[in-house]
């Protein structure tokens, strides 16, 4: 068991357990069936067929699932989920100034931190955080999704504002430390070049130079590694300046690659690694005009055989396995024993 009595989550759709659908119930497809079909039998605002990584982290800690901050009259005694699907690290106004428009939500990282501050001020909980776990992200992925998929920015253009994204994540970690955090995990980003949405939008016939051994898009994955390396450097500096706080990097990138390398052993269909379970059309079972959650778009018969759920987000099984990998990789440093979680 991990020695946590509470968990506080900041982030985007990788971790949102319901804030976005409370903000705007019709503004997200994650509020529609078949989202949630596997575990909850109904949509909960989680962008998967069932549990997210944060749900597995809570289970491992022996805690209930985190309630979304915007859900009134919830039990927040074991932590709060502030994450919002579509949230960016940079404020939406900052992104707009460089031609990157985020239409999903204005609840960027600074807004979520303000919610956290209000929560601690109202409850006096800030004095009781020595056994809490703070998850700062994954965040930043939607900044680049908006840049590549919405604003048609080049990789070099996206690289130009990587330092700004790193800075706001750095500031967020410093801010939660001021609130009293003593154990902080900062995840990196996934290899987006392996996601059906990117494989569909940036499809090319130049397979020898564009794709890697897994048939993922090399340049996009190289960009994510560029971002993750700079994030890790920032975390190292934060550690040096805050010796009384455990600050760890969660390597979602290599956890994801581990899934691909061991797909058959883990029970996935190796021929469907690049396909969305819930989708329609094309080589990757994904169509931006008809995404999962729209009428007539159905899920595959067995989501546990696929890594990807909807072209962007992962299946419940993939989420659980990534958490298992991360726990073995870093959480012993947070005074945890080896993982005992069950992947349902």
Please characterize this protein's 3D structure.
By secondary structure, the chain is an alpha/beta fold. The protein is built from 13 helices and five strands. It has a five-stranded parallel β-sheet with strand order 2-1-3-4-5, with helices on one face. Helix 2 packs across helix 13 (316-329), helix 7 runs parallel beside helix 10 and helix 11 crosses helix 13 (316-329). It is globular and about 55 Å long.
Summarize this entry quickly.
With 344 residues, this protein is α/β, with parallel strands linked by helices. Helix content is 38%, strand content 7%.
List the helices and strands and how they pair.
Elements: E1 6-10, H1 19-23, H2 53-60, E2 79-81, H3 92-97, H4 109-123, E3 132-136, H5 141-150, H6 155-159, H7 162-179, E4 183-187, H8 196-201, H9 207-210, H10 218-241, E5 246-250, H11 252-261, H12 263-266, H13 316-329
Helix pairs in contact: 2-13, 4-7, 7-10, 11-13
């Amino acid at each position: 068991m991990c020695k946590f009595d509470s968990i506080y989550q900041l982030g985007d759709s990788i971790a949102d357990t319901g804030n976005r659908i409370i903000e705007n119930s019709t503004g997200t497809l994650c509020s529609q069936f078949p989202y949630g079909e596997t575990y909850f039998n109904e949509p909960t605002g989680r962008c998967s067929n069932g549990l997210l990584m944060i749900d597995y982290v809570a289970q491992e800690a022996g805690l209930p699932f985190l309630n979304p901050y915007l859900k009134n009259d919830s039990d927040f005694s074991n932590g709060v989920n502030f994450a919002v699907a579509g949230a960016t690290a940079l404020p939406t106004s900052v992104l707009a100034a460089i031609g990157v428009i985020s239409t999903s939500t204005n609840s960027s990282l600074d807004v979520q931190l303000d919610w956290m501050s209000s929560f601690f001020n109202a409850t006096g909980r800030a004095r009781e955080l020595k056994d809490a776990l703070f998850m700062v992200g994954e965040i930043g992925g939607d900044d680049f999704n908006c840049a590549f998929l919405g604003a048609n920015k080049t990789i070099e253009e996206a690289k130009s504002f990587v330092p700004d994204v790193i800075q706001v994540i750095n500031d967020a970690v410093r801010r939660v430390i001021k609130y009293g955090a003593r154990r902080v995990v900062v995840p990196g980003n996934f290899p987006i070049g392996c996601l059906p949405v990117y494989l569909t939008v940036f499809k090319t016939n130049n397979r020898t130079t564009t794709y890697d051994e897994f048939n993922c898009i090399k340049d996009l994955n190289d960009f994510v590694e560029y971002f993750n390396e700079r994030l890790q450097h920032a975390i190292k500096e934060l550690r040096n300046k805050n010796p009384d706080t455990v600050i760890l990097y969660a390597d979602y990138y290599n956890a994801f690659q581990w899934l691909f390398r061991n797909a058959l052993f883990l029970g996935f269909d190796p021929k469907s690694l690049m396909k969305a379970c819930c989708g329609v059309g094309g080589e990757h079972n994904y169509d931006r005009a008809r995404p999962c959650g729209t009428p007539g778009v159905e899920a595959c018969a067995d989501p546990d055989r696929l890594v990807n759920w909807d072209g962007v987000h992962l299946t419940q099984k993939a989420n659980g396995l990534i958490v298992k990998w991360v726990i073995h990789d870093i959480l012993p440093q947070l005074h945890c024993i080896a993982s005992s979680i069950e992947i349902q």
